[in-house]
Amino acid sequence: MSFSRDAKMKGKEKEVGEFRQTLIRLMSLMHGSALDEIGGGEELTDSYEVLDIKGLDIETLMFLRDCKQKYNFNRVEALQHMVQILVTHNHHSGVL
Question: What is the value of pTM for the model shown?
């Protein structure tokens, strides 16, 4: 992402890399979850391939698994919120 170029110049290469990787994983999972929802799926399954889901922490994966049944949240909307939080946090911390 070109908007993180300044952060790399400021010595935040690691944070920029973590941001990029997390954003890509969340967007991939959001896309797969949206396709699963359109197809009528209820579970967080392997119906659609996503990029490196094991790169996300276990708490996040457990929350997403329980989203619909336990918390009555839409998984796609929960993932969208996670992306918004990720971008906002990284903007305020100078990564973006």
Answer: 0.79
